[in-house]
Fold these 2 entries.
Entry 1:
Amino acid sequence: MKRTAAGEQLRAYWRRFEAALIGTLVLLALGIFLYGSAARSFAPALAIDWSEEVAIYLIVWATLLSGGAITAERGHVSANMLEHRLSPRAQRRLRIAIDVVVLVFCSLMLWLGSQAVLFAHMLDERSASTLQAPQAWVLYLALPSSMLLIVVRLALSLSSARSNV
């Protein structure tokens, strides 16, 4: 299966969108954390008790969502020490084998993460701050969401690799 110009354009757009989203989440986390710290120090009346909590949620989401981008750039698990010693055909097969192992692991994490989201929702887990954020949606959902992105990226990679072997 050859990559079309439209497909490449879509991939490039998706990479830019992911980078912008991840960067925005990190900047929001930084801004909220700095505001919370400054307010506690210089204007306690304006302080909020949930700034660190929200900053942690944003960092967790940014970190986990970056897995899809790393997978797209083949920056995840690899066997670089072994790979360069192999023939080009063996290198492709090794990459496919690694992708399959990672796909199985991420699929399992997607399923387990989804179960954790449902369980936390059933228990109505909430944060301890005045925000009372539902943990199922603001925290636990990050894992299955990121695993889904990685699974999709790996499936696309495997489908294109299969046609090249």
Entry 2:
Amino acid sequence: MPYMRGIVAELGFARREIEYTQRKRRSGKTKNNWYTLYDMAMLGITSYSKMVMRLATILGFVIAGMSFLIAMGYFIMKLIYWDKFPLGTAPIIISIFFLGSVQLFFIGFLGEYILNINTRVIKRPLVVEEKRINFD
């Protein structure tokens, strides 16, 4: 199903608003449950937004940087206090966070490529002209 709100906004034609007061429902229940509302929201986000992929890329980069700094601090502390500083599970946890954040970064980066391909395939117009003046 196409995302109707996005398609209407994409067309860009002159729009007029009509005042309307909806009456209360006489009987029955809405057919929209949590899943259908979630489906419409995800369709709108994935069709018209790059924010989620950019957020994944930025978040992966930031967490990778923090994990790297923590790992360097841990390494320096281990070199300074060799006998008193236990090896333990901290390096394993740091490396898991670092590798997970690198994966998150590249998933976001791959998503950016897919979004650019999708934008080119859809061939949405860059502008919508209402009128051309002084053009033949």
